[in-house]
Structure formats: structure tokens, C-alpha cells
Design brief:
- The chain has 4 helices and no strands.
- The chain has 76 residues and is an all-alpha fold.
- The chain is flat and about 65 Å long.
């Protein structure tokens, strides 16, 4: 177990030394950030937050009128 951990740590340290930060600087050339980018992120996150609430409201509306005791008697 210790041998594996030492191998992983040494592999991580060697891979950090080999990587070049030039790739990170060059990536800004391809990331076209405009004024529409924050709005796209906002709409995406808004949908992620609101979809579970809409689903919860629909499921509550669907199951609110049902009587659990009556449904259990139908199965017997």
C-alpha cells in the first residue's frame, strides 16, 4: 500500500515538472469570451437550478390529490 502511494506521489511530482505552462497561455487564444458568455452561463445555471423545482412542483401536483389508503386497497 505504501509502495503504491509513493509511486503515485512520485508520478504526480514528475508529471508536474514535465508539463508546460505555455499550453495554458495558448488556450486563451481559443477561448473567445464576449459579452454573451456571462449570459449563457447564467441561463445554463438558471436552468440547472429551476428544473428540479419545476419537476418537484409537477410531482407534488400529480400526487397531491391521491389518497394513499385508497391506492393500497386497489392492489389487494
Amino acid at each position: 500500500m505504501v509502495k503504491i502511494m509513493l509511486f503515485r506521489i512520485s508520478f504526480f511530482i514528475i508529471s508536474l515538472m514535465v508539463t508546460s505552462s505555455a499550453y495554458a497561455v495558448d488556450s486563451y487564444r481559443y477561448a473567445h469570451v464576449t459579452i454573451e458568455t456571462p449570459w449563457a452561463i447564467f441561463i445554463f445555471l438558471l436552468l440547472i437550478i429551476l428544473v428540479p423545482f419545476v419537476l418537484m412542483a409537477i410531482l407534488h401536483w400529480y400526487f397531491a390529490g391521491k389518497d394513499p389508503a385508497a391506492e393500497q386497497n386497489d392492489h389487494e
